[in-house]
Write a structure and sequence with these properties.
Elements lengths: L1 H6 L6 E5 L6 H11 L3 E5 L6 H10 L5 E5 L10 H4 L8 E6 L6 H18 L10 E5 H4 L12 H6 L6 E6 L13 H19 L13
Parallel strand pairs: 1-2, 4-6
Antiparallel strand pairs: 3-5, 4-5
Length: 215
């Protein structure tokens, strides 16, 4: 991580979000932050899940762009360089996990969930579960957040005026750290219900542009 920061094509720092995990990872996070000036962290009082962690990271971001990746080490931080060149044209750039190293059963679940989501949202996204993304921070902050929203980031971005996204293949590795919290219920059933919530919200989403002010 620190090696990549020194070679990244744009000015970069890292914000770790400890989502209340009980695996004592916060101790390692604090140690790393004490040793490197460009590393920062926030830690939840109690476990709130992935969507809350992403929202917190966006809320505390002070840069023009905000990117995120999971801590399970299945994606490569250096692949942010594959996403960065597209930021001048797209508000969200997301990876597609090439040659996924997950189990066949997990890939089947994801394929079914992605197909249903595309049908319900018409977002056209290939792999919303890829944990490697970069967004324009101003667009990221306007996303209506809810538990499970990380599966709908392309759809939520294109709800906004001028919102668009791009996908590009990134590397994918077998899980090296942590334990997956996903199973059949929250990989298929919960997203199924969330799709209907998205369709309801899509027709009621508010867009506006301020023409003039004296603030």
């Amino acid at each position: 991580m620190t090696d990549y920061i020194s070679t990244c094509s744009i000015s970069t720092c890292v914000l770790f979000v400890n989502d209340g995990s009980k695996d004592k990872s916060i101790d390692l996070i604090k140690k790393s932050c004490n040793e490197h000036s460009h590393l920062y962290y926030i830690s939840f009082e109690s476990n709130k899940g992935l969507s809350a962690a992403i929202k917190a990271g966006i809320d505390y971001t002070e840069s023009e762009y905000v990117g995120y990746m999971d801590a399970d080490m299945q994606t490569d931080v250096r692949d942010f360089e594959l996403l960065i060149p597209y930021l001048n044209k797209y508000k969200l750039v997301t990876g597609i996990r090439a040659n996924r190293k997950d189990t066949p059963f997990k890939r089947i679940q994801s394929k079914i969930a992605n197909s249903f989501r595309r049908m319900m949202t018409s977002d056209g996204a290939t792999d919303t579960g890829c944990p490697l993304k970069i967004m324009h921070t101003d667009y990221a902050r306007r996303i209506p957040f809810f538990t499970g929203m990380h599966r709908f980031l392309p759809a939520l971005i294109i709800l906004q005026d001028g919102g668009n996204y791009y996908e590009t293949p990134v590397r994918h590795y077998p899980r090296q750290a942590g334990k997956s919290k996903y199973h059949l219920w929250n990989r298929l059933i919960s997203p199924f219900k969330d799709c209907f919530a998205y369709r309801w919200m899509k027709h009621r989403y508010i867009n506006y542009k301020v023409n003039d002010n004296n603030l």
